[in-house]
Amino acid sequence: MAVKLPFKNKKNDKYMSSAPKYRIHIGDVLFDILNHLFFIVFTLTCIFPFYYLFINTISDNDLVRRGLITIIPKGIHFKNYLSLTNVTDLTQAFKISVMRTVLGTALMVAATGLVGFLVTKQEMWGRRIWYRFIVVTMYFNAGLIPWYLNMSMLGLTDNFMGYIIPSIVAPYNIILVKTYIESIPVELEESAYMDGATYMKVFTKIIWPLSKPILATIAVFGAVGHWNSLYDSLILMQNDSSLQTLQHRLFIYLTKANNLKEIMVSNSAISAEIQEQLLDSKITKWTVSMVTVFPILLVYPFMQRYFETGMMLGAVKG
Fold first, then answer.
1. Per-domain residue ranges for the chain?
2. With contact defined as beta carbons under 8 Å apart, do 229 and 250 qualify?
3. Cα(234)–Cα(246) distance, rounded to whole angstroms?
């Protein structure tokens, strides 16, 4: 049986099939342009210091001394970086910084994840007291001198573990992990307990895998903190230069350059040797600064996606 199609009005169909269009205002276009320009300028402002530092470390040293390198590198070479491998204290400081960052971050993440999980358990003895005790340390501390005396009595001065032990428990990170774990459906844990799983089994098989975003976030915090830390090395490792970090060595070079500069200002009749030492110290300082910054710049983009997710889910309880 043939089906008769309804009469099709081309004029009506034209208006009925046309989808509503969003009217673009000149103000919206202007806002988008200004918004993009602002963030482009802001991004370039953030990147330029690192770029300027880098091109001055790979350009001809004589041109760098005369301040002729501004935007485009000239006489490109990598001798400054290769020369750092011959400096024993810098090589040792780099090893200490890497060891500290890797070991300290790993222990901090493991301890923070476990503590954050435990303080979510209602049946934990004294849970509220322990959690509040952890939080209150964010707002009160004894000060620098009592901290140093405490570290000294514990035997953590001129000791590599002085970098690791104090940073294992991080209150702010524990709060983030606790809040994130509380957003995980409790039914997952209950079903595991019904099957006979222990707390440690639940933590390692369920909580830990599901908490990767927030754990990656605090790993970024820990790694950046360890790598950039200066004052603990400056205060605790005064008598053992082999345990000084890369930031500590950079501080020494910076101080040395400033002291030589003051000598030049106060005495115009200085020898060419001191002036050359000042210039070499400046180039070395810039090269060490680039070596210090580069590892974090290299690692951070790979952790960015975890960082954003972890911060959002860890800061707001679902």
1. 28-77, 87-315
2. no
3. 11
| 219-249 residue pLDDT tens | 888 888 898 888 889 999 888 888 889 888 8
| Second-level CATH architecture of 87-315 | Orthogonal Bundle (1.10)
The pLDDT tens digits for 32-82 are: 899 999 999 998 998 898 898 888 888 888 888 777 888 888 888 888 787
Q: How far apart are CA 73 and CA 64, in angstroms?
A: 10
Q: How many CB atoms lie within 10 A of CB 155?
A: 10
Encode burial over 25-63: b for 16+ CB neighbours within 10 A, e otherwise: eeeeeeeeeeeeeeeeeeeeeeeeeeeeebbbbbbbbee
Closest Cα to residue 94, out of 104, 85, 103? Answer: 85
| Angstrom distance (rounded) from CA 213 to CA 180 | 9
Closest CA to 94 of 295, 256, 237: 295
Q: How far is 6 from 163, CA to CA, in rounded Å?
A: 82
d(CA 313, CA 182): 10
Measured CA to CA, the distance from residue 123 to residue 171 in angstroms comes to 21
* Residue from 308, 194, 215 nearest 186 by CA: 194
Per-residue pLDDT, 139: 84
Q: Residue 12 pLDDT more than 60?
A: no
Q: Which two structure tokens, joined as six digits, stand for 263?
A: 């000598």
Amino acid identity of residue 246, one-letter, is L
Instruction: Round to whole Å and give the CA distance between 296 and 225.
Output: 10
pLDDT band at 267 (very low <50, low <70, confident <90, very high): low
| Distances 118 to 55, 104, 204 between C-alpha atoms, Å | 50, 21, 13
> What distance lies between CA 123 and its chain's CA centroid?
35
Does pLDDT of 317 surpass 50?
no
Q: What is the DSSP letter of 78?
A: -
Give dist(CA 240, CA 264) in Å, integer. 31
Nearest residue to 314 (alpha-carbon basis) of 120, 163, 134 = 120
